[in-house]
Amino acid sequence: MNLILHLLLDAAVIFGLAYIMPQVDVKSFGTALLIAVILAVLNFLVGWIVRFPLNLVTFFLLTGLVRIIVTALLLKLIDKMMSSFTIVGFWPALLIAVAVAVVGGLVDGALAPSPAVQQATDYQALLLF
Fold first, then answer.
1. Dist. CA 79–CA 90, nearest whole Å
2. Is 83 helix (H, G, I), strand (E, B) or coil?
3. In terms of pLDDT, which residue wins out, 112 or 38?
């Protein structure tokens, strides 16, 4: 459920920013949803390979910044792969990556269980053993 929500919100962010920014062109919301799915798959398969050496260089101090830059690079890669998605320049890709990261963080924060619920769940798990 959380994955579906993230994909839909990422697609909405990409589609909304494409509507606002003249440097970004997305043909339809279906294309934006496909971009969100490809971005998630690339982040899972390729993103960690790129992030790991960059995090070693920054001594893991700039992990969030590295993640945003890698997401922007992956968006540019998707731009090259798809004809129905166009980003002119790196800065619009970086802005989309920042917006996707902010919305993802807000969703994760809103869906995270409260400490009381987490403590009750931990207590119930202890009772099972």
1. 11
2. coil
3. 38
Classify residue 1 by burial, with Cβ atoms within 10 Å: 0-12, 13-18, 19+: exposed
Whole-number Å distance between alpha carbons of 17 and 11: 10
Tokens of 42: 């690339």
Number of independent structural domains in the chain: 1
3-state secondary structure of 122: helix
Bridge partners, residue 87, by sequence: 24
Question: Of 28-32, 34-38, 81-85, 116-120, which gets the smallest average pLDDT?
Answer: 116-120
- Tell which residue, 100, 110, 106, has the closest CA to residue 13: 100
What domain range is 19 assigned to?
2-128
Residue 57 burial class via C-beta count within 10 angstroms: exposed 0-12, middle 13-18, buried 19 and up: exposed
What dihedral do alpha carbons 113, 117, 122, 126 form, nearest 10°? -150
Q: Average pLDDT, stretch 101-109? A: 89
Look up residue 99 and give its amino acid.
Answer: A
- In angstroms, the CA 105 to CA 6 distance is 10
